[in-house]
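Open question from group meeting: does this chain pack into something compact, or does most of it stay loose? Before anyone orders reagents, we agreed to write out a predicted structure and look at it together. Recording both the input and the output here so the notebook holds the full record.
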Amino acid sequence: MAGDQDAGPQGAAGSGGIPPWAQPQLATLTKDRFSDPQWLFERKLDGERLLAFRDASSVRLLTRNDRDVTGTFPEVADALRAQQADDFVVDGEVVGFRDGQTSFSLLQQRLGVAHPAPKLIEDFPVFYYIFDVLFAAGQDTRGLPQRERKERLHALLDFAGPLRYTEHRVGDGEAFYRQACVDGWEGLIAKRADAPYAEGRSRNWLKFKCIAGQEFVIGGWTDPQGTRVGLGALLVGYYDADGHYVHVNGVFPDFKLGEDDTLKPASPTAALEGLLSGQLRRCPGAATQPAADGSSPFTDGELLSCDPSETP
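Structure tokens returned:
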């Protein structure tokens, strides 16, 4: 199974200090399932992508869109600050768990909270699963093969507390994928073992998703009509193969108006249950206001400029 034959940012490990930012590599969704000794296979996690930057004076946690969330996850920052190594950039995913499975809805309790109280940290613990190293010990490691980068990562950090090393298997992707789906995982990430770390989306990293149905995101809403209050339809869509948001339809969640005039679920439909569990997510780049007459701002098949990498 061949991936992209591109070189990394430098093609080989270089030297230099810790940069202020590094563009993350992104995986490409595929329907292929394969086994190949030249590929590594990792668990696909449902969380928020984080790059961690550590130098002698500071620790910074940045999302894939270069948003600083160091204060949101102080326990992760503290664990990285306590490492013996003091100059590195690592890539990973911060997740929450419920009943042994990663839960984005649990993680949402922490997202957007700049300075969480100790009680919130205790009630909604998170873990940082680290799967790559981009800089370490004065070297730019992005040009090294994936296999060697994981070896260096394993030796670099003390994986304790909220820090976790992302384990992988070599070669037997099909059996691992079947077991992942049986165990209720989201799927796997397949990574070409000899490939460098490449900025942006690449076929050197591939997503094997277990979910059989289509995952939708929320692109907007309409005003209520008739007896509905507060909200009409949620306008949902999906991302096509080119990464564009495609409007599909409107769904009508069953809300009621609470005593505090806020919308509350009454008898959740399957779509609303997906929304509440974090499976339906708003498309950040899509229009979020209805047309002037309260109708859908989209037409079936209309493409909107929305980058799926911006979703949580």
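Observations to bring back to the group:
Confidence is low (pLDDT under 50) at residues 10-15, 263-312.
The first strand starts at residue 14 and ends at 15.
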